[in-house]
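This section describes the prediction task in plain terms. A model, or a person checking by hand, is given the sequence of a single protein chain and must write out its three-dimensional structure as a string of tokens. No templates, partner chains or ligands are provided. The sample shown here is typical of the held-out split.
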Amino acid sequence: MSQDAYAAAGVSQRDADDAVAALVGHLARIDTGKPSRVVPLPGHYASVLRIDERTGVAFGTDGVGTKMVVAERLGRFDTIGIDCIAMNVNDLVCVGAEPIAMLDFILCSEADATVCDEIGKGLRAGAELAGIEIPGGEIAQVGDVVSGWELGGSAIGLVGLDAIVTGERIEPGDALVGIPSSGLHSNGYTLARKVLADVEPSDERLGRPLGDVLLEPTTIYVRAVLELLASGADVRGLAHITGDGVNNLLRLSRSVGYEIGEPLDVPEVFGLIQDLGGVGDEEMHEVFNMGLGFVCAVAGADADESVALLARHHPGTRVIGRVTDRAGEIRR
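The expected answer:
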């Protein structure tokens, strides 16, 4: 496989960044004829609008990507809804918002009650884990656009304008608390599927069937993070580690650097992908979460308290590094 394995598999992050820039160039110039309600949070995980002098509404939208292709191949759709919930609410909580609801959006070539029943099971389970409601959604039969199934959602949450976690207060010496992922979560599946294409779903070299490993649901961190925010700990930044790996930390603040000196354990599935695909270390860390699902940047004095609280929800949580004065630099 080429040096840039993800691009060879069909995904170019550079093209994606250029596409976003092309869109935002127009959206940023929208003129409604009245003052904007947007709270400026460039590059952050969710958007926030001012509702009144104290309250903000946070919005986010995301999907499960090509993990749905794995679900289709295995004919198992009962957990994919958890992934959809997780990808949305984990982003919302990064700005300090409490997620309250999500709308799902299903694209399919032809509606199937059995498949939708299975998707619904996962959406319900995910919603209960996140403490949100799903008051509505949409199913679109668009056989001319998709040949299988796609699942996405848009979530909403509430946050006090004085409680938004922007990352701007992060400073050198702060502790980076890492919370484990459950595996691939919902990123990097285009590369993973290409590398593992010749491995049978029943293959148990990882200790259980590969199909089970690939469909392991994305961890939902909302309840733990909301408890941390309410605890009095000085939380200065929150990062959902998705595509682009630990580089997501730069979305919080580029005026500081980040040093990951004690990374979390890396699940074996990542080693399998790397070995079979010949993917380099650097690209693995750019494409996958590598066992790190979420990072909380907290004041150094609050590190132990934060670890203890978060570990009650997510065992294996620990301090993985610190914030440095090397602006824009990430060291692993």
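For orientation: The chain has two domains: 37-163, 175-331.
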